[in-house]
Amino acid sequence: YSLLLVFLSNYFILHADDKQLRLIGLCLYLGAAVSMVIPAISLDFYLVVVSFCLFEFCVGIFNPWCAKMRSIVIPEEIMATMISLWRLPLNITVVAGVYASDNYPSNIVFA
């Protein structure tokens, strides 16, 4: 059933207007936040499992929602450049970490 829910929700995301997309995003963030609070306050096994399933559902819907929002907000001509610019600091950090792990002792690099 969860795969069917994901397909149906993706259909609604692809055919939603701007106001509906913002509401869907708000519901995703609130649903994920509530689903992470439940295991912190409850020890009931089934409630915790259901909350983690809700969280995974929100994570699964987030990527198509984010792609749809990106297609609305960022013009097609500069989309690839904008996405690449956000990845540049991450790549620099990874290269610096690899360089540091090769040249410095592990207790300094992973401190």
Q: Can you give a write-up of this model?
A:
The protein is an all-alpha fold. Helices cover 86% and strands 0% of the residues. The chain has helices at 2-14, 18-41, 45-73, 79-103, 106-109. It is flat, with a radius of gyration of 19 Å.
Features:
single chain; mainly alpha; 5 helices; flat
The number of helical segments is 5
Choose one word for the global shape.
Answer: flat
Through-space gap between termini: 44 Å
Number of beta-strand segments: 0
Which structural class best describes the helix and strand composition? mainly alpha
How many strands, what sense, and barrel or not for the largest sheet? none
Share of helical residues: over 70%
Radius of gyration: 19 Å
Q: What is the overall pLDDT average?
A: 86
List low-confidence stretches.
none
Sequence of secondary-structure elements: HHHHH
Provide the β-strand percentage band.
Answer: under 5%
Topology, element by element:
Layout: H1 2-14, H2 18-41, H3 45-73, H4 79-103, H5 106-109
Helix pairs in contact: 1-3, 2-3
Question: In a nutshell, what does this entry contain?
Answer:
The protein has 5 helices and no strands.
